[in-house]
Every structure is written in C-alpha cells, then in structure tokens.
Amino acid sequence: MTRRTVRIAMNGVTGRMGYRQHLVRSILAIREQGGLDLGDGDVLWPEPVLVGRRGHALEALAERHGLTEWSTDLDAVLADETVDIYFDAQVTSARVEAIKKAVAAGKHIYTEKPTATDVEGALELARLARDAGIKHGVVQDKIFLPGLLKLKRLIDGGFFGEILSVRGEFGYWVFEGDWQEAQRPSWNYRAEDGGGIVVDMFPHWEYVLHELFGKVTSVSATVRTHIPQRWDEQGKPYAATADDAAYGTFQLAGGAVAQINSSWAVRVNRDELVEFQVDGTHGSAVAGLRNCRVQHRSATPKPVWNPDLPVTEPFRDQWQEVPDNAVFDNGFKAQWELFLRHIALDEPYTWDLMAGARGVQLAELGLKSAAEGRRFDVPELSL
C-alpha cells in the first residue's frame, strides 16, 4: 500500500460548521477509516493545518484531536509549499480576500458558500482560479443528504412523470438570545456583517433546484426581518438588520414552479427541519434530510371537500416510505471525498466556483426582487 499525503489549510474550524461537519465528521472521519482509498493500493491521507484568529481555541482543538499543526498566520501557511489545499469556512465577509491569497499562492480551493457577498466578487474568484489553473470546489452538501439522494433516485427512475411543482419548507425558531441562548451566531442577523437568510439559504436552493429539477430561470421573493431585536453572545441587545425569513418563488427550465419558504422565525410542525414536496403527473414525494415518502397515482386517494364534516382520512398514512437501499455517509464527508479524488486522480467534478457564483447570483436577485417588488429573470453567467 502506498500512502499519499495531502495537506489542507482549514480556515474557520473554530466555528460550528467548520468544526463539526468539515473537521470532525469529514477530514478526521476519513483519517479514522484509514484514509481515502484511491484504488490500486493507493491511499490518500488528509493532513489538516488548522488556521484561524484565536490561537488558544486552535491549540485546544489540535490537542483534543491529536493534531500538531495550527497557526494564526494565514500568510505563512499559504507560503508553505507543502500545503496543497486551502479550505474556507470563515464568515462570508472575510472569505473573498482569503481565497484570493490562496489562489495567488497556487493552492487548490475548497470553500463553504456563499463564496462572496455579491455576484461580481464570486465571478472574480472563479476567473482568478481559472487563470491560475488550480482545482476548486464549493460545498453543496444538501444534494448528498439521504432524503434528497432518494428523491434523485425517484427522478432518475421516472417515478414522477412530468414534474409540475416543488414546495420547500425550511427553518426553525432561533431564540432571540435574551431568555434563552440563540442557536446561531449573532452576525447571522446583521446585514453589515454579511448576515441574512437569503444570502445564507438561496445559494442552497439554487444548487438543489439546478441539480434535481432544472436551472432556475426567474425568481420572485418577499423577505422580512420578523424579529427586529436580538441579544448577542455577551447578552447585549442589538438591532437585527438582516432578513430572518424569505418566501421565494422560482420558475425552472422545463416549466416546473418551485416555492420555498425559509425562516428562522417559524416553529416546526413537520417531520424534519427541511422538507420538499414534489408533485408530478404520475406521483408525488416528500423528502427531508433523511427520509422520503411517496404516493403513486395508482394509490392516490380521492378527497372530497366538505367543511361540514370532520376529516376521516388519515392522509399521512397513505404515503409509502422509500427504502434506504444503500448506506448513506455524511453528506459533507461524501463531497470532501469526491473533491479529494478530483485533486488526486483528476476525476470529474462540477461543483466549482462557477456553481458557487450561481448561488450568489440567485441570492442577489432575490434581495433585488424583494426590494423592488417584482420578478427577475436569472441570466446565464459567464467568465
């Protein structure tokens, strides 16, 4: 067996997503399984170099997981010729300049989304990466979720016939922070710090819709800041200047219509924190993070509207669970493995900085739609 080492500068791993999903459940999980099997007896061994601003936090993380390399000096890490990949899970407002430095240093890029705060910045990153001849990828984790993988299986198998519509519900109640601690960082609710649910979630909806149902051709959105005041990590009140709810309608290539509600001011009355209902001429499905239920046209009941009588049909019981039929790995880890194979073996990889720019574009147009009260077409992006 030949072990090949790939060194990854991981910036932002002291944050919730960077630590839990990318460091622990992806990179360290790959190490725990003995590395990434490349075939022919070759194994790729990821070696993380932890990067951030808080040295004490990085040192504690490294000690906790038996790692030896961490630094608060990003420039020095990028100057290290043995570092192959730069990964970014920082706040969005700090991302562009860090990625520019990494591209200039010749590092391959893997980054969380959104890739930039505006579409021009996102396109600039894609352009710089292209000109530098480096490989690059953007996290698009939701298409690797078990529920959506089952949904993709149904689509590929022709279950739906013609897909007519997609309805998505995402969100949960994020505590204001006064009488109960908030579950999300306070910067998420300050527009001046890059916060807002449109900037956060519309890039997700772009790639989910694009990958499963077709390119988004137009967007119409209404956004709100339902909770105008929140309390930060120190218990101090602050003005919530970013949107905390968005109600979007997306027209898709091929004619289907998608409606997706996203909110941090909604109490959950569904089986999972995100659910998509897909209705087609031959059948329907409801997919969440892990589960997926279907109803074929041959088993569709025949409800009759009668407000004078109580409902006697158990509508939820009339759906059939889609079996797993496979072992589903963590979605972040699955995409990391594909990107690492792209780096090591030059295998095809489509979720790049240009795909990231499409997500930023949709968020930008969604905010513009809400501000001007009209629908906008989504033009094709080019470098």
| Poorly predicted parts | none
Estimate the helix proportion, in percent: 25-40%
What is the H-and-E element order? EHEEHEHEHEHEHEHEEEEEEEEEHHE
State the total count of DSSP E strands. Answer: 18
Shape descriptor: globular
- In whole angstroms, how far apart are the ends? 42 Å
Q: Structural class of the helix and strand makeup?
A: alpha/beta
Query: What topology, given as strand order, has the largest sheet?
Result: 17-16-15-14-8-13-12-9-18
| Average pLDDT figure | 96
Protein architecture, described:
- The protein is of the alpha/beta class and 383 residues long.
- It contains nine helices and 18 strands.
- The protein has helices spanning 16-32, 55-64, 74-79, 92-104, 119-132, 146-156, 197-212, 331-345, 353-372, and strands at residues 2-11, 36-39, 42-51, 70-71, 85-88, 108-111, 136-138, 163-171, 216-224, 229-231, 237-239, 245-252, 257-263, 274-280, 283-287, 292-296, 320-321, 376-377.
- Strands 17-16-15-14-8-13-12-9-18 form a nine-stranded mixed sheet.
- Helix 1 (16-32) packs across helix 8 (331-345), helix 4 runs parallel beside helix 5 (119-132) and helix 7 (197-212) crosses helix 9.
- It is globular.
- The chain starts with a strand and ends in a 6-residue tail after the last strand.
Characterize this entry briefly.
The chain is 32% helix and 25% strand.
Characteristic key phrases:
single chain, 383 residues, alpha/beta, nine-stranded mixed beta sheet, seven-stranded mixed beta sheet, 18 strands, 25% strand
